[in-house]
Specification:
Layout (H helix, E strand, L loop, with lengths): L1 H21 L6 E3 L3 H6 L15 H23 L2 E3 L4 E3 L10 E6 L4 E8 L5 E9 L28 E2 L21 E5 L6 E15 L11 E15 L11 E3 L7 H7 L6 E6 L4 E6 L8 E4 L8 E4 L1 E4 L2 E2 L5 E5 L6 E3 L1 H13 L16 E4 L8 E4 L5 E4 L4 E6 L2 E5 L2 E3 L5 E3 L7 E6 L4 E6 L38 E3 L2
Parallel strand pairs: 1-29, 5-11, 6-10, 18-26, 19-25
Antiparallel strand pairs: 2-9, 3-13, 4-5, 4-9, 6-11, 7-9, 8-9, 9-10, 12-13, 12-27, 14-28, 15-18, 16-17, 16-21, 20-24, 21-22, 23-24, 27-28
Membrane topology: Lipid-anchor; GPI-anchor
Family: Belongs to the peptidase A1 family.
InterPro entries: Aspartic_peptidase_A1, Aspartic_peptidase_AS, PEPTIDASE_A1, Peptidase_aspartic_dom_sf, TAXi_C, TAXi_N
Length: 488
């Protein structure tokens, strides 16, 4: 009897387990032109005006719908996005940290901000309800800005929303007293005592599809919902002319602008920066780069754009034991190498310069030369896997001129650690493609002309959520499923 009871209990448990494993969630599909679909769709026209099922007009309407959907999909897959004020970036050299800046528009009504471009960090922050910010009048920045910079006020934007501590993207949640508080932020940067802090908000970033390759039936303007740092307090370099009107982080973090744009299905998960020799350049969101570009994989390290350099070469001579990891950082003005590699590279460059080293007050570089003739220095070549090479054709920069003499410097320093970093000074003359979709860095020689951007090839559809900022309701685990009206 006990054995029979045990057997029956086993069978019951097995059936219960099988029933649990076999359970599915279903939803009834309703075609939009079915009788039920016609009754469900709320339109400004009567359902009687819809074509009769399986008539010529019926199939023509479906075909037009398919065509429209395909063109809209191509808008994200084939095109590049640029800020609503254009793709151009600007720089004014040493006056503003040697960084590149671009104008962006935020909020409703839109307000313009001149933000520094930084691939080494994630957050987009702008001066906001300032307690401690840099001056914003154009007279302070005459060589950079042609109009006054702005201070953001969330209360003045009808599309602004409070960003709560309960949101999954709030890194400061453990420090919040209540999940209903507004999420605070603090970002510390590499430069000494340089930081930005304040509160996070949601608002609209205004963009436009690159007019050089915008497809028909795809809207020219785009309003993308993103997270913004309301920067109430800045410190260090941010008070003395570097990024006075904010900074756009372009990193791999979920809170960066490229992450929001790609998750919203507005672009391919990639962007490019191009800096020319005339202190100008371009930024393109969704740019995958030309097919002939060279490339190397990003290393899975600290969620940063880090690449593995296999060797450093001066001209055609490769230096021994010069492999290292390098952060590709447009927010860093200059280039830094691990100490031992820095010494090898600097000594080899110095060997080719027919001039004595001179010290320059206020300059951190060790290898500077005062001469009447530009030194003939071979290119620095960074070698990567698969025989890909990044060539720095002009390693020296002109620092100053007086009485017929020119001071040239090697703008490289020791990083003081095992990793190095490639700053934007050595990105000049290249279209740098940050391909986050395939986790690789691409580069190709470029004059950064707007009409040279070529639409990328299509890829399989993204599986990312179309809404980059899920509400608390969207994040719930509810199993309730409503009937769906299929758009086909």
């Amino acid at each position: 009897m006990a054995l029979q009871s045990a057997f029956l209990l086993f069978c019951a448990l097995a059936l219960a387990t099988e029933e649990t494993l076999a359970s599915v969630f279903s939803s009834r599909l309703i075609h939009r032109f079915s009788d039920e679909g016609r009754a469900s769709i709320k339109t400004t026209t009567s359902s009687d005006s819809l074509p009769e099922k399986r008539s010529l007009e019926y199939y023509q309407l479906l075909a037009r719908s398919d065509s429209r959907r395909q063109r809209m999909n191509l808008g994200a897959k084939f095109q590049s996005l640029v800020p609503s004020e254009g793709s151009k970036t600007i720089s004014s050299g040493n006056d503003y940290g040697w960084l590149h800046y671009t104008w962006i528009d935020i909020g409703t009504p839109s307000v313009s901000f001149l933000v520094a471009l930084d691939s080494g960090s994630d957050l987009l922050w702008i001066p906001c309800n300032c307690v401690q910010c840099a001056p914003l009048t154009s007279t302070y920045y005459s060589s950079l800005a042609t109009k006054d910079m702005n201070e953001y006020s969330p209360s003045s934007s009808s599309t602004s929303k409070v960003f709560l501590c309960s949101h999954k993207l709030c890194d400061s949640a453990p420090d919040c007293v209540s999940p209903r508080e507004q999420c605070p932020y603090t970002v510390n940067y590499v430069s000494g005592n340089t930081s930005s802090s304040g509160l996070l908000v949601e608002d609209i970033l205004h963009l436009t599809y690159n007019p050089k390759n915008r497809l028909m039936d795809v809207p020219s303007s785009v309003k993308a919902r993103i997270v913004i740092g309301c920067g109430k307090k800045q410190s260090g370099d941010y008070l003395t002319g570097v990024a006075p009107d904010g900074l756009m982080g372009l990193g791999l973090g979920e809170i960066s602008v490229p992450s929001f744009l790609s998750k919203a299905g507005l672009m391919r998960n990639s962007f490019s920066l191009c800096f020319d020799e005339e202190d100008s350049g371009r930024i393109y969101f969704g740019d995958m780069g030309p097919s002939m570009q060279q490339s190397t994989q990003f290393l899975p390290l600290n969620n940063k754009y880090v690449v593995g350099v296999e060797a450093c070469c001066i001209g055609n001579s490769c230096l021994k034991q010069t492999n290292f990891r390098a952060l590709i950082d447009s927010g860093q003005s200059f280039t830094y190498l691990p100490e031992e590699i820095y010494r090898k590279v600097a000594v080899e460059i110095d060997r080719h310069v027919n001039a004595a080293i001179t010290s320059v007050e206020g300059v951190e570089w060790e290898y500077c030369y005062e001469t009447s003739v530009e030194p003939k220095v071979p290119a620095i070549k960074l070698k990567f896997s698969h025989n890909n090479t990044f060539v720095i054709h002009k390693p020296l920069i002109v620092l100053q001129q007086s009485q017929g003499l020119v001071i040239f410097c090697l703008p490289i320093s020791s990083s003081g650690q095992e990793e190095g970093s490639i700053g934007q000074n050595y990105m000049r003359g290249y279209r740098m493609v940050f391909d986050r979709e395939n986790m690789k860095l691409g580069w190709s020689a470029s004059k950064c002309e707007e009409d040279k951007i070529v639409p990328p090839q299509a890829s399989p559809g993204s599986t990312s959520s179309p809404n980059p900022l899920p509400t608390e309701e969207q994040q719930s685990r509810s199993h309730a499923v409503s009937p769906a009206i299929a758009d086909f």
